Amino acid sequence: MSSFPLLDYAASQQAKTEGINRALEHAGSTWLESAIQDFLRYLQAHPGSPLEDWRADYLERGCEPPESHKAFGALANTAVRRGLIRCVGYVKARSVKTHGHRVAVYRIKGEV
What we know:
Elements: H1 9-27, H2 29-45, E1 49-50, H3 51-60, H4 70-81, E2 85-92, E3 102-108
Antiparallel strand pairs: 1-3, 2-3
Helix pairs in contact: 1-4, 2-3
């Protein structure tokens, strides 16, 4: 039997924060800052896009991926927390690795 409670919101949020911090630590601050700026440029040209669209574009352009794919999600979370972008809805993912889950659609904060 696990010593962790199955349903604990505070523990869940703490685990989320720790996971994001680990992913960003492995990616490095240089990658994060550069990637956030690239994502903002992408959203200017493609408002209302899911992160997976930018990620595909980013990788297709030959940009260096982070050490862990989890850093992409941490990037979006960081940009939301900084007030740079906002979630405007959800769509079903097209990325095969995402298995059709719902993913957030983002816009630059302040844009309609």
